[in-house]
Amino acid sequence: MSAVTVRVPAKVNVQLSVGGRRPDGFHDLATVFLAVGLYDHVTAAPADGLRITAAGRDVARVPLDATNLAARAAVALAKRYGVEPDVHLHIDKDIPVAGGMAGGSADAAGALVACDALWGLGAPREELLALCAELGSDVPFSLVGGAALGTGRGEILTPLEVGGEFRWVFAVAEGGLSTPDVYRECDRLRRAGGGSDLAADLAAPGADPALVAALREGSAPALSAALSNDLQAASVSLRPALAGTLAAGLAAGALAALVSGSGPTCAFLAPSEAAATALAAAFPAGAYPALSPAPGATLL
């Protein structure tokens, strides 16, 4: 096989409930992932050794060495099957880098599917999901797509029913935010407010029944009333300009606005296609309409 290409979606967390910090440093989560139609494409081709290249949005900020999560995915799969990780991975970026939309995780899931096909391994889906979980908390959902509740640190997935399409506009901020930094700021804000950041002191979070029902019904107004992100205050604390971005989206007609994941991309739920077009026009520096749900990693 000369080369294979896999398409992988971005995600938005329509619920991100953050529990306490665990002894392993992660946080207990109840997060509802929704895959959106904004895609990276990962192409795997034969090579002498491991090589990473990238093109598209923000490529100057994409690492092209062994630290790239897609490269780590190829190495992990090769090690599992006792083969050499001889592959050229080329990543066409459209998902914002360090934008809270799981672009790196999507590339890792894409690399696993692409290398599995290129090398003819025939890895069972359960094995690919286990490798995804080892690589990162968001990687399993990038493989699965659609909609799902993520528990544990987000890697334990329960599929959710979606009864219709939802229209989004994503406003991309300059520069990224470090996910670990945002979680540390969340902990700091909780302590500063007189609370605790420890899992032993906080109840484990759960899915919001109203949000799950809104997805099942395909109701954008109901979903807009249920959106939540416990990391939003921390993201805004680290990047105060996000408050203005969120307000601008609401003023431009969004049903609801929230920071996507750990940010700094902001997500706006639109009531219609025309409203999404008007919303995107309100952010000339960079805004991208997208439909959800979207399929997970797909071999093209």
CATH architecture of the largest domain: 2-Layer Sandwich
CATH topology (level 3) name of the largest domain = Ribosomal Protein S5, domain 2
Order of helices and strands: EEEHEHHHEEEHHHEHHEEHEE
Number of domains: 2
What characterizes the major β-sheet?
8 strands, mixed
> Could you name the CATH class of the largest domain?
Alpha Beta
Number of helices: 10
| DSSP strand content | 25-35%
**pLDDT averaged residue by residue:** 95
Helix content bin: 25-40%
Tell me the Rg in angstroms.
19 Å
Number of strands: 12
Structure description:
With 300 residues, the protein is α+β, with helices and mostly antiparallel strands. The protein is built from ten helices and twelve strands. It has helices at 69-81, 103-119, 125-135, 139-144, 179-192, 209-217, 220-226, 232-238, 241-251, 273-281; strands at 4-21, 27-46, 50-56, 87-93, 147-151, 156-159, 166-171, 228-229, 256-259, 266-270, 287-292, 298-299. Strands 1, 2, 3, 4, 5, 6, 8 and 12 form an eight-stranded mixed beta sheet that branches. Strands 9-10-7-11 form a four-stranded antiparallel beta sheet, sandwiched between helices.
